[in-house]
Specification:
380 residues; Spore Coat Polysaccharide Biosynthesis Protein SpsA, Chain A; Hepatocyte Growth Factor; 16 strands; 30% helix; elongated
Length: 380
């Protein structure tokens, strides 16, 4: 029988409203262990039932500026990384020289490169044997200072470029969607919201899962939040193909919801490694993201899955839960709409409507809960 680990990400909140529903409809229903991967501040209530129930606790002291957390992650990921990143079909030299086999003050023509890592150029550009212009075919050039250098897509050219510092991603603009690095302070390029905090905790979770060998100890992983009330039991993971990435069918906002996902040991790293890719594939990601020019966390999740070649594995299952907030409860995002019926805030009415729809459909179906889920999930 498969072993399942349920993970609460980023923070524990609303336990007084949600824990009983969570334990009954998630932990007990899935026969799962609980893991917390959260930030804590002074005065954190370690007696809350989520913390007391958790088998694994990965805790990070929350800074006032999550730029400090990103710096920690960046330095950790950067250990032993290559000197240059390889960008295929990208030409950093495009339009900068007119005559082949010539050097300038900032550009060096190399007749022969024995070891690219011995060079000190910011960028090394190699025109391959298949480059159509015979004047440049099989030639190599180095650019000493590549500040503000434009990268141009061009086939049969390889650019080796020094990695970007993570703060460069703050320069990627957003128009409407709010950005993806909220929570990081920056004088010139600060993003709205708190999405950067969620990116950091995805990396922090992946690091701890690897360090503690939990990816090998468990078969399935449910990453979720603590402030959900479940209107129906969570679907059994056995109903979900382990090769797929399972996301609830609502709240996607031009990508895929960041609030809940069901993964397996086969695909969890491809889902969590956003920050790893910012560091290890920095130029590639920056080039592609800067071209799109409008981002939020949901869109970034979809983009990262696409770049990891697993986007085709995404499937959806019924959204049967909704997030809540107590009268004095904290929130990073929506404050919600107060319900006189329930005596708490419903954070996202669209979640409540979707989960209520499935609850009503189940009650009308006269099926068992497993039959109901099989019918809905089998449509995938």
């Amino acid at each position: 029988m498969s072993k399942t680990l349920v993970i609460i990400l980023s923070e524990t909140r609303a336990s007084e409203l949600t824990f009983d529903s969570f334990k009954k409809n998630v932990l007990d229903e899935l026969n799962a262990d609980l893991c917390l991967c959260i930030g804590v501040k002074p005065g954190y209530d370690y007696n809350n039932p989520f913390y007391q129930t958790a088998k694994y606790k990965f805790v990070y002291d929350e800074p006032d500026d999550f730029g400090d957390a990103f710096e920690y992650a960046y330095n950790t990921i950067s250990q032993n990384k290559p000197k240059y990143e390889c960008l295929c079909n990208v030409n950093a030299l495009y339009g900068k020289i007119q005559v082949p086999q010539q050097s300038t003050e900032n550009i060096t023509y190399y007749e022969n490169i024995q070891n690219i890592n011995e060079l000190n150029d910011d960028e090394v550009i190699i025109y391959t044997k298949n480059f159509p212009d015979n004047l440049f075919k099989n030639q190599a050039y180095g650019i000493k200072n590549s500040e503000n250098n434009e990268l141009v897509i061009q086939e049969n050219v390889i650019t080796y470029k020094k990695p970007l510092y993570w703060r460069e991603f703050l320069k990627i603009k957003y128009k409407i969607l709010g950005g993806f690095l909220g929570g990081i302070k920056d004088t010139h390029n600060q993003h709205k919201g708190s999405a950067g905090i969620l990116i950091f905790f995805r990396w922090f979770l992946l690091k701890n899962l690897i360090d503690n060998d939990l990816i090998n100890k468990y078969d399935r992983f449910v990453i979720t939040r603590s402030d959900y009330i479940y209107q129906l039991p969570h679907p059994k993971v056995e109903h979900m193909n382990e090769n797929c990435i399972w996301i609830p069918d609502c709240e996607h906002y031009f990508g895929y919801t960041d609030r809940h996902v069901v993964l397996s040991k086969n695909n969890i790293e491809s889902y969590l490694n956003i920050l790893n890719n910012f560091v290890l594939r920095s130029n590639e990601f920056f080039l592609k993201m800067n071209y799109i020019n409008d981002w939020n966390i949901e869109k970034l999740i979809g983009f990262n899955l696409e770049q990891n070649n697993v986007l085709h594995l995404v499937k959806e299952f019924p959204y049967v839960m909704y997030a809540v907030r107590n009268i004095n409860g904290s929130t990073q995002g929506s404050g919600g709409t107060y319900s006189n019926e329930f005596g708490y805030y419903i954070k996202y009415p669209s979640e409540y409507d979707k989960s209520s729809y499935y609850k009503n459909e189940f009650e009308k179906s006269k099926l068992t809960i497993n039959e109901f889920y099989k019918n809905n999930i089998s449509k995938q």
